[in-house]
Design a protein that fits this description.
26% helix; 4-stranded antiparallel β-sheet; 7-stranded antiparallel β-sheet; 299 residues; Jelly Rolls; alpha+beta; 8 helices
């Protein structure tokens, strides 16, 4: 575990970051402090409309400006503890030697250079951690996704993490393990690092390998959408079904984003192979769980 003291100092550097997790949220625009109110319902309906359109919704300026620097400080302090490695992977994060048909998109090898800080290295008093576990925040997210309930990832490493993309690196095309991803940019790069995605390119029952293959081979431009994000924007995304990536980062500044992993299925834990890829280590929970899923799609 990383000592928490540095994060307390960083959070207090601008006079914000401690106390109620919702104090950092612009509740005038996003009334998550008043569950069930008319304003709550309006914000939820707006998010649902965007999600229905293409599986992605961005709540601009979700975090109040004076707290954005708090998140940036947290990310900068955490980033050195990320598991850094450059690996050859595929879009499904399954072993590269998996037996697949010749034209299967899982045979296309990609270069993954992004890094992750695991949940067990993020102090509980960090703003991003307190927001992730805040019941009213979770209720709001669940309502936006139209879910009766929402569960934190049981995975002790992947439930909450910081994604770090250094200059010259990227997070290549992939699908998420969890169905519903909630993320927040905490530091923008000087250039590059654009979020690109292919809305609902697959479903619970159809992999649509042909379209995935087209994107991975540079022939699917018509399937790709691009999104410019700013620190403090909250992104709701159905990444289990939408192929997505972060394009190569340029300049000298890293791209940081907090990833809040939730699912409508309780007990979700990442596979041994994918956990080892992302965090460089595997815990007994991963071996015991057998990669619990809510569908039979490739990872």
């Amino acid at each position: 575990m990383v000592a928490a003291g540095g994060y307390v100092d960083a959070c207090n550097a601008d006079g914000a970051g401690m106390g109620d997790a919702l104090s950092g949220v612009d509740t005038a625009r996003y009334p998550i402090d008043t569950p069930g109110s008319a304003r709550w319902a309006a914000a939820v309906q707006s998010a649902r409309n965007e999600l229905a359109a293409d599986g992605c919704c961005v709540l601009r300026g979700f975090i109040r400006p004076e707290y954005v620097q708090t998140l940036r400080h947290e990310g900068v302090e955490l980033a050195p503890h990320a598991y850094y490695t450059v690996e050859r992977v595929n879009a499904y994060n399954i072993p590269l030697d998996t037996e697949l048909p010749e034209d299967h998109p899982g045979r296309i090898v990609l270069r993954r250079g992004n890094a992750f800080v695991a949940r067990d290295l993020i102090p509980r008093e960090a703003l991003m951690h307190r927001l992730y576990t805040e019941p009213r925040f979770q209720r709001f997210v669940a309502d936006c996704f139209g879910l009766s309930e929402l569960h934190e990832f049981t995975d002790p490493l992947a439930g909450l993490c910081l994604n770090v993309v250094a200059p010259g690196m990227s997070h290549p095309w992939h699908f998420d393990t969890n169905e519903f991803t909630v993320s927040m940019l905490t530091q923008e790069p000087e250039c590059g690092g654009v979020f690109e995605y292919c809305p609902n390119i697959r479903s619970r029952t159809a992999e649509n390998f042909e379209d995935v293959h087209a994107v991975l081979t540079g022939h699917g431009e018509h399937l790709i959408r691009r999104l410019e994000l700013q620190p403090g924007d909250l992104q709701l995304f159905q990444g289990r079904f939408s192929l997505h990536r972060v394009s190569p980062v340029g300049g000298t500044v890293q791209r940081h984003s907090a990833i809040f992993a939730y699912s409508d299925t309780p007990g979700v834990i990442g596979s041994v192979e994918r956990t080892r890829q992302l965090f460089g280590r595997v815990l007994p929970d991963h071996h015991a769980a057998g990669a619990i899923r809510g569908d039979r799609l490739l990872d």
